[in-house]
Amino acid sequence: MSSKERKPGNPFASATSVSAEAFPSIREKEAVGRSLEEIAKILRRHVITMTARAGSGHPGGSLSATDIVTALFFRVLRYRPSEPCWSERDRFILSKGHAAPLLYAALAESGYFPVEELSTLRRLDSRLQGHTDRTCTPGVEMSSGSLGQGLSFGIGAALAARLNSQSYRVYVLLGDGECDEGQVWEAAMAAAHFKVDNLVAIVDHNKQQIDGWNWEVMNLEPLGEKWRSFGWRVIEIDGHDFDQILAAFEQAELVKGQPTVIIAHTIKGKGVSFMENNPEFHGRAATPEETELALKELA
Amino acid sequence: MRELSSTREAYGKTLVALGKENPDIVVLDADLSRSTMTRLFAQEFPQRFFDCGIAEQNMMSISAGLAASGKIVFASSFAIFATARCFDQLRVSIAQPRLDVKVVATHGGISVGEDGFSHHAVEDLSLACSLPGFAVIVPADAVEVAQVVRAAAATPGPFYIRLSRPKTPLVYHNGYQFVLGKAATMRQGSDGTIIANGIMVARALEAAKNLSHQGIDCRVLSMPTLKPLDREAITLAAKETGAIVTAEEHLEQGGLGSRVAQVVVQHQAVPMAFVAIKDAYAKSGTPEDLLQRHGLTAADIEQAVKSTVARKK
Fold first, then answer.
1. Are the beta carbons of B97 and A8 separated by less than 8 Å?
2. In this complex, which of A150, A156, A187 lies closest to B66 when CB atoms are compared?
3. Does B223 contact chain A (CB < 8 Å)?
4. Are A49 and A115 in contact (CB under 8 A)?
5. Given this chain, do its domains B4-169 and B184-310 carry the same CATH topology?
6. Strand partners, B162
7. Chain A residues within 8 A of B30 when measuring between CB atoms
């Protein structure tokens, strides 16, 4: 069994100093007693505040995936924030790397780094890059931002677990627009072929991509049937209903001999009325006025 | 005529030896394992071999995931498919995070022959050298391949290693030891220097021998490592011999010649010439016919040396 991880860079470099007030935190201990709904609200507030402060970023696709990521980090995944490279950790791979603000919020609230550091998003010398960067952020498994590569990467991590007789599981979060990429389907074929049943893909199916609705830009349907025909167990859920999300992850653990995909029907911009289903907020941060409104709604 | 050796077979055999020594070695291929010779490893260690089918992009990102989980990964295909087909995967999944993926590509250059331009990798070294963090190596013969593959396994970070389809002449003396980032002096000389790699090393040696009969005393450097480049050997050759000719089986831009020229103009400007493929794709033909057509023979090197030495002040 291999315990070595030849990970370059220094993910433990000291954080840039920042003001604390902007990012009131639930601390990891407090999080345990909180409901997932409450935690999700806190993560959404972080996403709005971080991207607004940075003046750019992708709030829409972060908000649609917030409930899924909340469930994973605060109920499902096994990890040690003080030991990010713990070899038995479950792997969470953010293939849709533009939802980096959401991942950073979840990592900070899980205790990987100080919540105050979230305000450094996208700044020079920050550990929180515009899209995820494996070399500088503790807890980030993969450098991403160019879509379509995460599921393949996840297969690699899942195969390594098999070779090492390790029991960790691998979760890959994909966007629905990302499924336009051919590599996603190369990976879909391979995961079924290699029978990696320790791999779960989650498609954040918010139905929107930069140029419009999926069905206008590049029709994906029937999405579930596509995955099924590639050899996957398919579970379709409301991606904003925690009972359904948690049940799906439980169900996926029982699947043997094939990978599982959870198609999570979501709403882009979920939680902020004027961002919901508004493609404008795919890649634009809120103005100060919009931020105030959004935080009020998420209070 | 020097004895011929198969660089691909040397690769497959070395993988098997490494697999026995280190359980963390895993190998991936994209439906070419009979040609790349990774099949030798697959037969010995079926659990640690993954055939990804004809899907190079997927193979490279799977390799990255394995490497990120502590494995030392060898990923093989033909040179053009292992670079041009999956360049973004090399960049995002492997190069930037500096993962332990060793891309060993066979069928480099136009000596692939009859299959034609779609299978001739003439841009692969330019592409590989452009990736920060990648070490790029073009071994000259089977003896060197075995050593290069071992060095790659022992050195953290991504590698691109380019092998040939045809057998290549054995060029190194007994006891040769490959050192990453170092050139090997194959022949001393003071009138000019030929710097070559891959199949062009044997041709450079032949050219130097012929030139010696004509009173031109030529140094020959074998430069298997394109990146990191042996700047010292290049600068020294420029200083001591005053003229440099590079010889490579690659487009003129972005490969050995370009990289050597960057060092020469910065540290010791001397006349140079580039024996390489000019800005065009080749067609079908026997390897030897194609190498002749595109100016990659010993005679072409000889000619280039003569004209370059004549330009010395």
1. yes
2. A156
3. no
4. no
5. yes
6. B105
7. none
- Whether residue B228 has a cis bond before it, omega within 30° of 0: yes
Task: State whether residue A133 sits within 8 Å of chain B by CB.
Answer: yes
If you measure CA to CA, which chain B residue comes closest to A184? B58
Structural contact between residues B308 and B244, judged by C-beta atoms closer than 8 angstroms:
yes
How near does any CA of chain B get to the CA of A88, in Å? 10
Q: Give me the count of residues in chain A.
A: 299
Is residue B79 within 8 Å of B121, Cβ to Cβ?
yes
Mutate to test the interface with A, among B28, B66, B69 (most CBs of A within 10 A): B69
* B98 lies within 8 A of chain A by CB: yes
CB contact under 8 A, A154 and B100: no
Confidence of residue A9 (pLDDT cuts 50, 70, 90): very low
Residue A34 token pair:
């909180």
Nearest to A183 among B57, B66, B69 (CB): B57
Please identify, in words, the CATH class of the domain defined by A35-297. Answer: alpha beta
- Contact B88/A at CB under 8 A: yes
Break chain B into its structural domains and give their ranges: 4-169, 184-310
pLDDT digits 0-9 by tens, A146-193: 999 999 999 999 999 999 999 999 999 999 999 999 999 999 999 999
pLDDT value of position B131: 98
Q: The domain B4-169: what is its CATH number?
A: 3.40.50.970
Contact by Cβ (8 Å): B219, B185 = yes
Q: How many Cβ atoms are within 10 Å of B43's Cβ, its own excluded? A: 12
Domain ranges of chain A: 35-297
- Say if the Cβ atoms of B55 and A186 lie within 8 Å: yes
Percent share of chain B, pLDDT over 90 = 98
pLDDT 10s digits, B263-293:
999 999 999 999 999 999 999 999 999 999 9
Taking the Cβ of residue B24 and every Cβ of chain A, the question of whether any pair is shorter than 8 Å is answered with yes
Give chain B positions within 8 Å (CB) of A189: 53, 55
Task: Give the DSSP per-residue string, A191-260.
Answer: HHHTT-TTEEEEEEE-SEETTEEHHHHS---SHHHHHHHTT-EEEEEETT-HHHHHHHHHHHHH--SS-E
- The tens digit of pLDDT for each residue in B164-221 reads 999 999 999 889 999 999 999 999 999 999 999 999 999 999 999 999 999 999 999 9
- Measured between CB atoms, which of A3, A6, A155 is closest to B62? A155
State in words which class domain B184-310 has. alpha beta
Contact A11, A127 (CB under 8 A): yes
What would the pLDDT profile of A191-240 be if each residue is shown by its tens digit? Answer: 999 999 999 999 999 999 999 999 999 999 999 999 999 999 999 999 99
pLDDT in tens, A238-249: 999 999 999 999
